[in-house]
Amino acid sequence: MEYFLELFFGGLTRGSIYALLALGYTMVYGIIQLINFAHGEIYMIGAFTALIAASALSMLGLDGWSLLAIAGLAAVIYSAAYGFTLEKIAYKPLRKAPRLSPLISAIGMSIFLQNYVLLAQTSDFLSFPALIDEFPFMEDVTIIRSSELVIISVTALSTALLTIFIKFTGIGKAMRAVAQDRIMAMLLGVKVDRVISVTFIIGSALAAVGGVLISSHVGQINFYIGFIAGIKAFTAAVLGGIGSLPGAVLGGLVLGWTESFATGYVSSDYEDVFAFGLLVFILIFKPSGILGRSSAEKV
Amino acid sequence: MKIMNSFLTVLVMVLSAAPVFALDTIKLGVAGAHTGDLASYGIPSLNAARLVVADRNAKGGILGKQVDILAEDDVCKPEVAANVATKLVSQDVALVLGHICSGATKAALTLYKDAGKIIMSSSATNVELTKSGVYPNFFRTISPDDAQAMLQVEFAVNTLKVKKVAIVHDKGDYGKGLAEFAKGFFGKKGVPPVLFEGITPGAVDYSAIVQKIKSSGADAVVYGGYHPEAAKIISTMKKKKMKAVFISDDGVRDDTFIKVAGKYAEGVYATGPIDTSKNAMAIEAIEKHKKTYASDPGAFYLNAYAAAICLLEAIEKAGSTDSEAISKALRGTWFDTPLGKISFDERGDALGIGFAMYQVVKGRYAEVGK
């Protein structure tokens, strides 16, 4: 039972990171029907920003939770700025182009950002400080570690805040309107450009949160970490039903658990086989994903 | 016509007399890729042989005879290697330094064996060449492919007294290859692995596999792969307060590993090549190459340099070019070479070269055993 719980929380932790990233994919897709392939890179940039900020701040003598909070905030702001700029540079000029063009642009931005960090920082792996302190009361608990608990809680909190934001604020309402019908929303006076920018900012901020948390958890980063995480999170978003916010979270968790249990009870050799096998299986029976709504193509 | 005939007679006499003069030299065949794609692996060995021989000849040769090099190019192709072997045997070489590639070496070996010729390679790492026991005439001054795994297993079982072992690898050629050798050796030692699994490099975290290692009750983890994953696994293990020792390979015996894993690297074992950079003979050999060829020596240079020294010394020691006597001398003598003091075991693998076990002590790799 203990083994099961350890795998459960391990999967939940990994799934939370996937979920934070998948939210960004799904929000952008919901609003402009674009797969933002550069999203994984935003996550990586968030982690790098936190590392730089944390190194600078710890030299000033800060430590513990304040260090995590300030470094995390710096990462969120910086990544959000990147997300905002990314949209303005790479996607906005292509808003009226065929759907394939922004997709190619996204892949290009992904490669560009990876290489930019490679050149501006380093190709080496870097050690990432453990920003999350061990809780004293967790001393004797073996099934879950403090950093895992923090990752799971932060994800839950972020998801809750996002839901409130979408449901109850004006801009949230505008986002839902644009997602339903962009042209109609525009005709009714919704500032579509602003809504899209806000979407990118929120998505990027969530990705940065994920990047900082997981890097602190595993203790290392390099310029390439966004790639695999991005692919997995995209898978999670499709699994849960792309365009659906609860779907992205559910997809992330299901993927995390599948990988964790597949490793724990079968073999880690087949971790990815199980993850993608599950995706295929679900898409056969529910082509629009677990919580996705099958919408008729607009004519 | 008559004049022509007598001319031919003279010519035949001169030619048949030639081997009589040649008996005054000892012929050393040097076979390997000297042209083609893989020439960069073969040329350094040829250069090494030339330098060692020139050095020796200047000091009066061996057993009072000068040494002659017969260089033959096999372009690392098995079929060409067989021709080269036939040619060298027919020219009655005393010994052969080569070949370079394992495939070519294997193809040539039977021919040398039938002719009773000793051959020593500086670069053929295929395990079967020595372990099969089929080629008693074969020696090498490089570690076989499974040497690291062998060292890991011996160290784990004999020194660390490991009872239960988990083997993890990164599914790559290098990591998985080593892990499979280690699995075989552990089995032979009576410590069959409780876990043998591959992980996906670059995954977000490895908590599930670490959990699995923990519940398997292993007291040692042998990891085949590179340092980024090793750093993630060892830090996750230490954070979960696991006591199991972590043993890895050359891919982890890298200062980047210590830098990334930080305090969690402490106590980790890793095999790595024995350090020859401070060996006086190695420094001298490299200087010589730079002076003679105006370039840095390439791959396997020191191995070939050591091989040439061993071969020539063995003739000296044996007192003749008789193969039996030479192979006895090779197995029974410790030679001073740029790779350190080396000798050869029953199968023809060199002793005293290759890998050593290192451990991270106070943030640095320190040698703890050979």
Overview of the molecule:
- The complex is a heterodimer of chains A (299) and B (370).
- Chain A has 299 residues and is mainly alpha-helical.
- Chain A has one domain (2-285): ABC transporter involved in vitamin B12 uptake, BtuC, CATH 1.10.3470.
- Helices cover 74% and strands 1% of the residues of chain A.
- Chain A has helices spanning 2-32, 39-59, 64-91, 100-120, 146-168, 170-180, 182-187, 192-218, 225-240, 245-266, 271-285; strands at 126-127, 220-221.
- Chain A has a two-stranded antiparallel sheet with strand order 1-2.
- Chain A starts with a helix and ends in a 14-residue tail after the last helix.
- The mean pLDDT of chain A is 92.
- With 370 residues, chain B is α/β, with parallel strands linked by helices.
- Chain B has two domains: 2-142 and 278-351, 3-Layer(aba) Sandwich (Rossmann fold), CATH 3.40.50.2300; 147-267, Rossmann fold, CATH 3.40.50.2300.
- Helix content of chain B is 47%, strand content 19%.
- In chain B, the strands form three sheets. In chain B, strands 7-6-8-9-10-14-15 form a seven-stranded mixed beta sheet. A five-stranded parallel beta sheet of chain B has the order 2-1-3-4-5, sandwiched between helices.
- Chain B is elongated, with a radius of gyration of 25 Å.
- In chain B, 49% of the residues are buried.
Q: What is the fold named in CATH at topology level of the largest domain in chain B?
A: Rossmann fold
CATH superfamily of the largest domain in chain B, by name, is: Response regulator
The greatest inter-chain interface is formed by: A-B, 38 and 31 residues
Note the beta-strand portion of chain A: under 5%
Architecture blueprint of SSEs:
The complex is a heterodimer of chains A (299) and B (370).
Chain A: H1 2-32, H2 39-59, H3 64-91, H4 100-120, E1 126-127, H5 146-168, H6 170-180, H7 182-187, H8 192-218, E2 220-221, H9 225-240, H10 245-266, H11 271-285
Antiparallel strand pairs in A: 1-2
Helix pairs in contact in A: 1-5, 1-8, 1-9, 1-10, 2-3, 2-4, 2-8, 2-9, 3-8, 5-6, 5-8, 6-8, 9-10, 9-11, 10-11
Chain B: H1 2-22, E1 25-32, H2 39-58, E2 66-73, H3 78-90, E3 95-97, H4 102-115, E4 118-121, H5 128-131, E5 138-140, H6 147-159, E6 165-169, H7 173-188, E7 195-198, H8 207-216, E8 220-224, H9 227-239, E9 245-248, H10 255-261, E10 269-273, H11 280-293, H12 301-318, H13 323-332, E11 335-337, E12 340-344, E13 350-351, E14 355-361, E15 364-369
Parallel strand pairs in B: 1-2, 1-3, 3-4, 4-5, 6-7, 6-8, 8-9, 9-10
Antiparallel strand pairs in B: 10-14, 11-12, 12-13, 14-15
